[in-house]
Amino acid sequence: MTITKDDSAPLIAVVGATGLQGGSVVNALAESKLAYRIRAFTRNATKPAAEVLKAKGVEVVQVDLTVENKDQVFKAFVGTNYAFLVTNFWEHLNMEREVAEGKLLIDAAKAVGARGIVWSGLPSVSKASNGKYTHVVHFDGKAIVTEYGRQSGVPFVNVPAGLYAQNFFGPFGLILKRPDGTFEIAWNMRPGSKIPLIDIVKDYGLFVRKAIESELFPDGQDINTVSEDIAPTLIAEQLSEVTGKTVVYTHLTTEEWVKRLIGAGQPEAIAIELVQSFTFFDEIGYYAGQPSASTEGLGTPTQTWKQFARSADWSKVLI
Ligand SMILES: NC(=O)c1ccc[n+]([C@@H]2O[C@H](COP(=O)([O-])OP(=O)(O)OC[C@H]3O[C@@H](n4cnc5c(N)ncnc54)[C@H](OP(=O)(O)O)[C@@H]3O)[C@@H](O)[C@H]2O)c1
């Protein structure tokens, strides 16, 4: 454990430290050989995740990181050497708000003289598809923030998150039970198309740590995080193998998948956004045709899908 209160150690401000990405960043820094001071922001400094951070020696600052609260936000960043910034689209589903809050965080880090910003962006689907896919606003908004950050004058690295392996436990119903009692992963991606899957808890922070610890801060770069680039057929096959349950991949048409999601209770806009994002992953690639980053030299081995699947508790999903 190398989290310290010693002023000689760099101060890393971590947004979202009570959540998945920021939590992973805190853990990776805590396991570094180098010492850091870490400041975590949360809207509720007494919640259990905040208490866990305090117990690790993290300074927990209660602040609502919204534009209405600009002065408090700027104050909260004072003293920051490096900032890890992430926004949470899924909490409000509003691209304009995500963009405004992303820019606010960059402005705050700049105002306090941060030496570097690590931002969790995503590529612009509407730009990379030449306007063909315009509903993937949780990608497009983050790409606008990335452009803003690159022009901020502060050394700026974009560290987009791959598709979370943890999504299989999430609200989108990525694994379904079939009437015969077996399970299926049913998307509109061609069976052999690969996606950059990431164990967001164990692996994401390793890429952020590497960026912060690089001899030369990787200003201007995109570090496209991944645990394993993998095709959906293999996801299903390996999940079957490690759990002993039958899980197959079914290739749906776009229309079939939208219909199924709406039938399962997803709002139409969310169903279209989700399905269009997978259409983009299939046709152009999750990282808009750029390769995933190397998983070598991160200081800690990353997880394969099979390792993730083996260690996860599927008892509430594969039932
Ligand atoms: N699911 C995927 O496959 C995937 C892939 C790539 C990117 N993403 C992106 O990941 C983002 C979410 O990141 P995550 O998964 O790490 O989120 P998460 O686990 O849900 O945590 C959200 C974090 O954001 C903090 N937060 C949100 N609004 C805040 C505010 N107004 N002030 C202060 N803190 C605030 C929360 O802190 P408190 O609640 O403690 O205040 C919490 O720590 C989304 O924008 C999504 O688009 C997801």
What does this structure look like?
The chain is α/β, with parallel strands linked by helices and 319 residues long. The protein folds into two domains: 11-160 and 199-226, Rossmann fold (3-Layer(aba) Sandwich), CATH 3.40.50.720; 161-198 and 227-319, Alpha-Beta Complex (UDP-galactose 4-epimerase, domain 1), CATH 3.90.25. Helices cover 36% and strands 14% of the residues. It is built from eleven helices and twelve strands. The protein has helices spanning 20-30, 48-55, 70-76, 95-111, 125-128, 137-150, 204-213, 232-243, 254-263, 268-283, 305-311; strands at residues 11-14, 37-42, 59-62, 82-85, 116-119, 156-158, 163-164, 176-177, 183-187, 195-198, 228-230, 247-251. It has a six-stranded parallel beta sheet with strand order 3-2-1-4-5-6, sandwiched between helices. Strands 7-10-11 form a three-stranded mixed beta sheet. β4, α4 and β5 (116-119) form a beta-alpha-beta unit. α8 runs parallel beside α11 (305-311). The longest helix has 17 residues, at 95-111. The relative contact order is 0.13. The model has no long low-confidence stretch (mean pLDDT 97). The structure holds NADP nicotinamide-adenine-dinucleotide phosphate (NAP). Residues 16, 18-22, 41-44, 64-66, 86-91, 122, 138, 161, 163-164, 167 line the site of NADP nicotinamide-adenine-dinucleotide phosphate. Residues 11-288 form the NmrA-like domain. It comes from Mycena indigotica. GO terms for molecular function: oxidoreductase activity. InterPro entries: NAD(P)-bd_dom_sf, NmrA-like, NmrA-like_oxidored. This is NmrA domain-containing protein.
